């Protein structure tokens, strides 16, 4: 596992949220259980929000929870919502605003994560100033099938070795394979259902984190 040199990236498990993955449970409840289990970075990715107001209200609640537990909150795509709730950053993809525009809006003291699915995207994200990337799908997962078949561990390690910024393995990562995912060059894991769909999200978070090397604490 590659070390986390950035003082801003003080987590090795990145929880991506989605209401459709919570088995009918309240999203805020499941996220708080994950935070109690030790999760220290949450991305709000609520594509099912009925309106900007609803997304903002969810973001407000997650900001309150993440602040209570000393965790970071990133908002998927929506720079306006991230600024409105003073989130720690934004996570963008290929259909988002250009990275340099996001940086100009957010400033230098906010995180920008980028979803990447091939080597060219990963290198470009670093060159454009991303703070970290997610790369995958590493393993098969229905939620990432639109991006093609799994890239595999070898490609993950190849890309992570090439970059200087942290790379988080994404796609099909769970308790059975998370140790393999970070055994090479990746700096951590990003996941959804392994925690959100678990019968006990707090226990799932604890067990996943126990499989990962500890993160050195940074103070900024």
UniProtKB/TrEMBL annotation:
The Thiamine phosphate synthase/TenI domain, residue ranges: 13-195
Any GO MF annotation of the entry: magnesium ion binding
The reaction(s) this protein catalyses: 4-methyl-5-(2-phosphooxyethyl)-thiazole + 4-amino-2-methyl-5-(diphosphooxymethyl)pyrimidine + H(+) = thiamine phosphate + diphosphate; 2-[(2R,5Z)-2-carboxy-4-methylthiazol-5(2H)-ylidene]ethyl phosphate + 4-amino-2-methyl-5-(diphosphooxymethyl)pyrimidine + 2 H(+) = thiamine phosphate + CO2 + diphosphate; 2-(2-carboxy-4-methylthiazol-5-yl)ethyl phosphate + 4-amino-2-methyl-5-(diphosphooxymethyl)pyrimidine + 2 H(+) = thiamine phosphate + CO2 + diphosphate
Keyword Methyltransferase: no
CC annotations in GO: cytoplasm
Binding-site list for 4-amino-2-methyl-5-(diphosphooxymethyl)pyrimidine: 43-47, 76, 115, 144
Cofactor needs: Mg(2+)
UniProt entry tagged with the keyword Transferase: yes
Biological process terms in GO annotation: thiamine biosynthetic process; thiamine diphosphate biosynthetic process
SUPFAM superfamilies, alphabetized: Thiamin phosphate synthase
Protein name per its UniProtKB record: Thiamine-phosphate synthase
Organism per entry: Geomonas paludis
